[in-house]
Design a protein that fits this description.
Layout lengths: L4 E5 L1 E2 L2 E2 L1 H17 L3 E7 L6 H6 L4 E6 L8 H15 L3 E5 L2 H14 L2 E6 L1 E5 L2 E8 L4 E7 L5 E5 L16 E4 L31 E5 L10 H9 L3 E4 L1 H5 L20 E5 L5 H7 L4 E6 L12 E4 L2 H16 L1
Parallel strand pairs: 1-4, 1-6, 4-5, 5-12, 6-11, 7-11, 13-14, 13-15, 15-16, 16-17
Antiparallel strand pairs: 2-3, 8-9, 9-10
Length: 328
């Protein structure tokens, strides 16, 4: 068991975060080198039904911490529950997908488990018992390699879309083990009472494989509806530059950039965004970047995979019509 790689499977209201299943792909690669197995743990209330999906993506064993006190995220309760799952699994390494939840949770668990912690990595390597992780620095302009020596437990969070989600094995099954946890009264001093989501079924920018972002060039909140139409068609998310947010066109929850959210989608479409360094820092890790801007010298074109010097009010409807035609 000490050579197993444990993946924390993040779920929200019974739906698994896709990035967590991507991390299982990393766990399978690492477990092949350690001689252990990729295993997983799920926290929540009524989450036993999720074990099958996790097994189909490669987990050989699933630790379930199922408790009514875990129905909604609570930092102290989740930290105690994940620490209990780690103790039961006794793994060599714990992997988490980088998310707002894991940024809050991982340091708390590392303290409880007396573990080393590296966050927001884009690559992990094993050198014997030594683990090395590559992490972006200085807005992605540089990369640092951090290592954790043998001995202590290690926790590492990995950016979404760093690893490709493999095809599920429909016939795969996994052993499940229930893990019990007892909460202290103090664990409930901070609780979540309501989850607020965006309108129209649009995803959060940190969770979508496709992000369509707009800048101040859209000129109004009303004009962002064309991006929302494209995002809904592609099952994506709508993002915005800081200038668009400051102008009141979009809420801060959709801001992409150094002072907003860092995203690493498979496809990022920037519409009317010049590409200030703060914005580039939040999206330069995207797999494919498409830029639409009337300014040929805009910095966004320096990082774009494909660039189109055109008026977004002409190009966006054309792209949306073409996407609709392809889907049909």
């Amino acid at each position: 068991m000490a050579n197993d790689i444990l993946v924390f499977i993040e779920q929200r209201e019974g739906k698994i975060l896709p990035a967590s299943l991507q991390i299982l792909a990393a766990a399978k690669e690492l477990a092949a080198e350690t001689g252990g197995s990729p295993v997983a743990c799920i926290l929540g209330s009524g989450v036993d039904a999720l074990a099958g999906s996790v097994a189909r993506h490669g987990a050989k064993k699933v630790y379930l911490v199922d408790d009514a006190g875990l129905e909604k995220y609570s930092a102290l309760c989740y930290a105690r529950a994940l620490a209990a799952a780690i103790e039961a699994a006794d793994p060599k390494l714990v992997l988490l997908a980088t998310s707002f939840l894991s940024r809050d949770l991982a340091p708390r668990v590392a303290v409880r488990a007396k573990a080393g912690l590296i966050t927001d990595c884009t690559e992990i390597k094993l050198d014997g018992d030594r683990i090395e992780a590559l992490t972006p620095l200085y807005c992605g302009k540089a990369f640092g390699t951090f290592s954790l020596d043998t001995g202590a437990l290690k926790l590492i969070s990995i950016r979404p879309n760093t690893y490709t989600l493999g095809e599920p094995d429909a016939s795969a099954t996994a052993e499940t083990q229930a893990v019990s946890v007892s909460f202290d009264e103090q664990d409930h001093r901070v609780t979540t009472t309501e989850l607020v989501r965006g309108s129209g079924g649009i995803k959060d920018v940190t969770e979508a494989d496709i992000v369509i972002s707009g800048g101040r060039s859209l000129k109004s909140e009303e004009n962002f509806k064309m991006l929302e139409e494209m995002a809904e068609l592609l099952d994506g998310a709508v993002g915005a530059s800081r200038a668009a947010v400051d102008a009141g066109y979009q809420p801060h929850s959709r801001q992409v950039g150094l002072t907003g959210k860092v995203v690493t989608p498979v496809l990022y479409i920037a519409c009317g965004i010049d590409g200030a360094i703060q914005h580039l820092a939040g999206m330069r890790g995207s797999k494919v970047i498409v830029a639409v801007n009337t300014k040929a010298e805009a910095p966004i074109f320096s990082v774009a995979t494909y660039g189109c010097v055109a008026d977004l009010f002409t190009m966006v409807p054309l792209l949306t019509d073409e996407f609709r035609r392809l889907k049909e």
